[in-house]
């Protein structure tokens, strides 16, 4: 989070190979930021057992995008089946129009989340070359429907060359 806050608009944050345990949502609030691995799928962001989600809803998001033209590339995102977790969320807040248009999620591996893997409401978003799997939601002892990529309001959402399975 500190690196994302320190980089200039349209800057790039490169994660070296390794495992990064995440305790609270990574928030991207400035335009044009790229968050990527130094080597494809060699940087793994893992939701910690102590992850602090939204205290009102008990839901959490590993990466929250609140700005335009953000790119997330070459990362592995592991939800560890922590309850009510999303991998990436780029949605509106308080029923206002989303300001996260132009999001690109490229060549990421996303698994073990217990809510929708990628939730996008910004326009002109692209999800490509991603492997999204084993995302499961259990409520009241029963398995519920979970999706790889969801939207409520996005226009011109492109999902290409992805494998999405349970």
Number of helices: 1
Task: Point out poorly predicted stretches.
Answer: none
* Major sheet characteristics: 6 strands, parallel
Radius of gyration: 15 Å
Shape: globular
Into which percent range does the helicity of residues fall? Answer: under 10%
Termini gap: 30 Å
pLDDT averaged over residues? 91
Q: Order of SSEs, N→C?
A: HEEEEEEEEEEEEEEEEEEE
Strand order of the largest sheet: 1-4-7-10-13-18
Structural class call reads mainly beta
Percent of sequence in beta strands: 35-45%
Number of strands: 19
What kind of assembly state do the chains in view correspond to? Answer: single chain
Question: Would you mind describing this structure in some detail?
Answer:
- The chain is mainly beta.
- It contains one helix and 19 strands.
- The chain has one helix spanning 2-6; strands at 12-15, 18-22, 26-28, 34-37, 43-47, 60-65, 71-73, 75-78, 85-90, 104-106, 109-111, 118-120, 126-128, 131-133, 137-139, 142-144, 149-150, 158-160, 163-165.
- It has a six-stranded parallel sheet with strand order 1-4-7-10-13-18, with no helix packed on it. A six-stranded parallel sheet has the order 2-5-8-11-14-19, with no helix packed on it. A five-stranded parallel sheet has the order 3-6-9-12-17, with no helix packed on it.
- A hairpin with a 2-residue loop joins strand 15 (137-139) and strand 16 (142-144).
